[in-house]
Design brief:
The chain is mainly alpha-helical and 120 residues long. The chain has helices at residues 13-20, 23-35, 40-43, 49-62, 80-86, 90-95, 102-116; strands at 38-39, 65-70, 73-78. It contains 7 helices and 3 strands, in the order ααβααββααα. A 3-stranded antiparallel beta sheet has the order 1-3-2. Residues 15-92 form the HTH arsR-type domain.
Amino acid sequence: MIARHPKREDIRLDAVLTALGNPIRLAAVRTIAVGGEHPCCDVLPQIPKSTMTHHWRALRDSGVVWQRHIGREYRLELRREDLDSRFPGLLDSILGPLVSDPLTQETISEYDRSRQGAPA
């Protein structure tokens, strides 16, 4: 199966904002943005692969990430150049404040606790 990525000119702002409106996807994009290309399984390893597959599709289909199949793994890379070209300053405006935002990490921690059956 070949992953479908929108062309740069077909990336829509509403699709990007919808994809980034989910806290797990936002945390994943933050991780990818600071570290370059990542194997899918290394971005948020505490979240089950089956759950992340849904999130990767949303990010890929919206034009936020490139997802490439290399050998036995999928690798993700932020489409920064394309997004900066289409929507100048958007990524910096969204990702910049996340450096010091405790709520993004809290969302991931709450997810971890719920998976382990612990009270939130």
